[in-house]
């Protein structure tokens, strides 16, 4: 009995000793090693200076987070967003800090921090005079304009034919093989109020139709003129794009394999793909496309830096998006990063940072 009791006590003592030793071997919270942070140039969120120093909205925010967490890190640049995402998903990077939008497909392979910036897609259009005349020309060749012109011509042809039917047997000017042409010509003159009065209908039916046609044509021409003037004025002042729906009828550019393309595909909007925003904006300036779609803050930054005199970013935001910090699935850093991130984005420092880079108050 004593032997059994001694054996049990000995086993309990050894177990406690092993547990204590194991507890002492558990490392303290937080990584002791240097973190590897992936990034990609996307001004004004991630900007690499000529001296190799990184700045920008996302980079400055990460520096604040790292200081709060007391961790060391080094930045590694990737050339594409896909490489940045794949590298983070595979564990090559401890975090991805850039202009990284939070999407469903990306959330399947990455964890994301709380959003630190909410925005959406924007549209850039050309400011050149040539493009404005192009806008007016396209408005005049649009389906709606051609339908209106076709309707007026159709009415003139119909009235001319009816005048010929009523007058051909009693009016020599509208009779014979050439009478139908004269009837249509008279109808066109009456519609435009340019009739000379030399050849007019003489039958009761013909004159009744003529009076009705003159009254109707005055209203039709007035409505048509007002509509065309309004459309051309709006196009000249506002440009070819006034809302997102206009993208379906113009030449649109976007960065290939970007969230902008995902939106355009969803809306069944045809587009031309470009390798970078710079390439797309150069094509826009050259008149190869009519509009370029990209994340609005990034688009506004590039236009402000290089194309302020030839391109403008419209005051339109669509397809809302959130920017966050990407992390490998199950990353132990996520909670601490979220806490530090939320502390910063609700501070005066964050307001000053957004103002310094984007002019946002």
Automatic annotation (TrEMBL):
<feature type="domain" description="Ionotropic glutamate receptor C-terminal">
    <location>
        <begin position="34"/>
        <end position="352"/>
    </location>
</feature>
<keyword id="KW-0325">Glycoprotein</keyword>
<feature type="transmembrane region" description="Helical">
    <location>
        <begin position="209"/>
        <end position="232"/>
    </location>
</feature>
<keyword id="KW-0813">Transport</keyword>
<protein>
    <submittedName>
        <fullName>Polar amino acid transport system substrate-binding protein</fullName>
    </submittedName>
</protein>
<keyword id="KW-0406">Ion transport</keyword>
<feature type="domain" description="Solute-binding protein family 3/N-terminal">
    <location>
        <begin position="34"/>
        <end position="361"/>
    </location>
</feature>
<keyword id="KW-1133">Transmembrane helix</keyword>
<dbReference type="InterPro" id="IPR001638">
    <property type="entry name" value="Solute-binding_3/MltF_N"/>
</dbReference>
<dbReference type="Pfam" id="PF00060">
    <property type="entry name" value="Lig_chan"/>
</dbReference>
<keyword id="KW-0407">Ion channel</keyword>
<dbReference type="InterPro" id="IPR001320">
    <property type="entry name" value="Iontro_rcpt_C"/>
</dbReference>
<keyword id="KW-0732">Signal</keyword>
<feature type="transmembrane region" description="Helical">
    <location>
        <begin position="145"/>
        <end position="166"/>
    </location>
</feature>
<feature type="signal peptide">
    <location>
        <begin position="1"/>
        <end position="23"/>
    </location>
</feature>
<dbReference type="InterPro" id="IPR015683">
    <property type="entry name" value="Ionotropic_Glu_rcpt"/>
</dbReference>
<keyword id="KW-0675">Receptor</keyword>
<keyword id="KW-0472">Membrane</keyword>
<keyword id="KW-0812">Transmembrane</keyword>
<dbReference type="Pfam" id="PF00497">
    <property type="entry name" value="SBP_bac_3"/>
</dbReference>
């Amino acid at each position: 009995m004593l032997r059994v009791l001694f054996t049990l006590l000995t086993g309990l003592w050894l177990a406690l000793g092993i547990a204590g030793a194991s507890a002492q071997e558990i490392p303290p919270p937080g990584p002791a090693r240097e973190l590897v942070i992936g990034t990609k140039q996307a001004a004004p969120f991630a900007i690499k200076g000529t001296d190799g120093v990184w700045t920008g909205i996302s980079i400055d925010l990460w520096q604040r987070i790292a200081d709060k967490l007391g961790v060391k890190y080094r930045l590694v640049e990737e050339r594409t967003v896909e490489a940045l995402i794949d590298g983070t998903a595979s564990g090559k990077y401890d975090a991805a800090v850039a202009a990284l939008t939070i999407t469903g497909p990306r959330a399947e392979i990455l964890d994301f921090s709380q959003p630190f910036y909410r925005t959406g897609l924007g549209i850039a259009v050309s400011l050149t005079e040539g493009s404005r005349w192009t806008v007016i020309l396209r408005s005049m060749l649009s389906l709606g304009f051609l339908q209106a012109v076709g309707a007026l011509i159709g009415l003139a042809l119909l009235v001319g034919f009816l005048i010929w039917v009523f007058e051909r047997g009693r009016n020599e000017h509208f009779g014979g093989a050439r009478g139908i042409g004269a009837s249509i010509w008279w109808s066109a003159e009456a519609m435009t109020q340019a009739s000379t009065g030399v050849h007019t209908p003489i039958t009761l039916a013909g004159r009744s139709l003529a009076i009705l046609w003159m009254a109707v044509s005055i209203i039709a021409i007035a409505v048509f003129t007002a509509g065309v003037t309004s459309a051309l004025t709006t196009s000249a002042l506002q440009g070819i794009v006034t809302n997102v729906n206009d993208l379906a009828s113009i030449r649109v550019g976007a960065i290939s394999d970007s969230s902008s393309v995902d939106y355009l595909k969803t809306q069944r909007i045809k587009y031309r793909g470009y390798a970078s925003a710079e390439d797309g904006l150069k094509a826009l300036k050259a008149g190869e496309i009519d509009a370029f779609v990209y994340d609005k803050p990034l688009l506004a930054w590039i236009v402000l830096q290089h194309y302020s005199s030839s391109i403008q970013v419209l005051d339109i935001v669509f397809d809302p998006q959130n920017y966050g910090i990407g992390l490998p699935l199950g990353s132990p850093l996520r909670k601490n990063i979220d806490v530090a991130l939320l502390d910063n984005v609700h501070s005066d420092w964050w307001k000053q940072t957004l103002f310094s880079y984007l002019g946002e108050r």
